[in-house]
Fold this protein.
Amino acid sequence: MDIYIINKNKDDRGNNEIHNITDYCEHLPKLENMSFLGSFENDNAAKIYAKNNGWPLADGCTFCCPKAHTK
């Protein structure tokens, strides 16, 4: 299982990006802008969890969570 965080700040499309921090992503937000989501089987499970737990505009990072990224 991989570990995920969400960016507290919205991106230019108005979404809060989810990042997989198990492997380094060079697009991570600053530490103070990260909120821990937990460990999940995949990107989509992390996105569903985020959307159901206070982050309705959650979206996957293009680089580290491409399967949960809305095109």
About this structure: Residues 37 and 53 are 9 Å apart (CA to CA). The helical segments are 43-52.
